[in-house]
Design a protein that fits this description.
Layout: H1 3-35, H2 50-81, H3 86-95, H4 101-134, H5 142-173, H6 178-201, E1 208-210, H7 215-227, E2 233-237, E3 248-251, E4 258-262, H8 263-268, H9 271-286, H10 289-311, H11 315-319, H12 328-343, H13 347-368, H14 371-385, H15 393-399, H16 405-417
Parallel strand pairs: 2-4
Antiparallel strand pairs: 1-2, 3-4
Helix pairs in contact: 1-2, 1-15, 2-4, 3-4, 4-5, 5-6, 6-10, 7-9, 9-13, 9-14, 13-16, 14-16
């Protein structure tokens, strides 16, 4: 078996195993949630009604079924792009009409992106306007959806096109260790994007207004002072324009750091509960979790770029993926297409690491506010977001960035009684 045949077989087996694995996990999730649909877990019986529990079960199963169909769609699209010859056909079609390398590369990369978006669009539309509407979460209008799509496309073009061409140029001109310099450039781009996102990009999609003066603002400012956290501002975001789901987050760093609350969150939680939720988020900063995640992302990107540096000049890499015309842009596109398959085995480890951080942030919140208040806030968020209380343990271990509800609540209650 030559190298091309070996790699093609490896790719097809990996595609089949990962796809079947994802489908099997989603099936497990559906069966487990449905099995426990008829009874609220004992720890939540005084807090969540059977009707709310069943709504969360139905919502979770509906999401999982959609994800199964989307998983199949993604697998078919990847196969068509590679072994089906679509990518090679697009490459040849563009070559016959374009002479300039950068126009060719840009059109090729853009074509792959557009095809991916078009294939994914039916799933997005169904999720937004059927599934989310069915369970009472969607507030997105077709007009707002289209406006978001146009804005996202423009931002992707303005930022993504120069980044893609810069990567191709560095791969062509910086010698065998181009991947080191590309990694440095990627880090600088990522840091710069995080710096400008709060003030330049986010306001293109949502309105951010200062948190009004009053009891809540006083509690938040007092908490920030106790925790030694400096923020450039406290803002309320009009998340209710798109969805009834609530959230709160930090964004930016340095002088551009902001604390942002969804208006839907503030409508549901009382000031003490909002304070507890914010204390949890502060726990992530105190534990340097954000920095750790950034460093982990940079480390993985270095490994993957190094791997691309090895594959870029290997004829069997292209031929095994259905392409007979090697090229720098082609190698980058192919690698981007297959990277989710290569990275899937890392998913359980990353989820485990994230859940550890969530426990640590809960511990921090319990020390600086009240564990009971955080429990109260989380229960309301589980209710409002229709989060299942009975996820499949294996599915949760692989996918979930947060601990299961019962485990997390039990941990917080143990802190409140200590």
């Amino acid at each position: 078996m030559n190298a091309t045949t070996w790699f093609e077989s490896f790719f097809l087996v990996l595609l089949l195993v990962v796809t079947l694995g994802r489908l099997w996990l989603s099936g497990r999730q559906i069966r487990h949630v449905q099995t426990h649909r008829s009874e609220v877990p004992e720890a939540f019986r005084t807090r969540i009604s059977l009707e709310e529990h069943q709504k969360a079960a139905d919502y979770t199963c509906a999401k999982a079924r959609l994800r199964m169909v989307q998983t199949l769609g993604d697998a078919v699209l990847l196969f068509v792009f590679t072994e089906g010859g679509l990518l090679a056909h697009l490459d040849q079609l563009i070559r016959t009409h374009v002479v300039s390398w950068w126009v060719h590369d840009l059109l090729l990369g853009g074509s792959v992106l557009v095809v991916g978006v078009l294939v994914d669009m039916p799933f997005t539309l169904y999720d937004t306007f059927r599934l989310e509407t069915r369970f009472g979460f969607n507030r997105m209008t077709p007009r707002l959806f289209l406006a978001d799509l146009v804005r996202e496309s423009l931002i992707t073009s303005l930022l993504g096109a120069p980044l893609f061409l810069a990567a191709v140029a560095m791969m062509n001109s910086l010698g065998p260790f181009w991947w080191v310099w590309s990694w440095v450039a990627w880090m600088l781009f990522s840091v710069g994007l995080q710096a400008i996102y709060p003030t330049w990009i986010a306001p293109l999609f949502n309105r951010f207004s200062p948190l009004p003066t009053g009891e809540l603002r006083e509690k938040i400012e007092s908490l920030l002072k106790r925790c030694g956290f400096d923020a450039s501002g406290l803002f309320v975001m009009d998340g209710s324009r798109r969805s009834r789901h609530g959230n709160a987050y930090f964004t930016g760093f340095g002088r551009s750091r902001r604390v942002v609350f969804f208006d839907t969150l503030l409508e549901r939680l009382n000031p003490e509960e909002v304070e507890a939720v914010l204390a949890h988020e502060l726990g992530h900063y105190h534990g340097r979790h954000v920095l750790q995640r950034i460093l982990m992302t940079f480390a993985l990107s270095l490994v993957f770029l190094m791997l691309l540096g090895w594959l870029k000049d290997a004829p069997w890499f292209y031929q095994g993926l259905g392409v007979n015309m090697p090229g720098t842009a082609m190698s980058l596109i192919l690698f981007t297409l297959v990277m989710p398959l290569l990275g899937f085995p890392l998913k359980p480890l990353m989820s485990l690491h994230s859940r550890k951080h969530e426990f640590e942030a809960d511990d921090y919140a319990a020390r600086h506010t009240s564990a009971n208040r955080l429990v109260s806030a989380l229960v309301k968020l589980y209710q409002d977001n229709a989060a299942t209380l009975t996820p499949d343990p294996l599915h949760s271990a692989i996918y979930d960035s947060h601990p299961p509800a019962a485990v997390r609540i039990a941990h917080l209650e143990s802190l409140s009684s200590a």
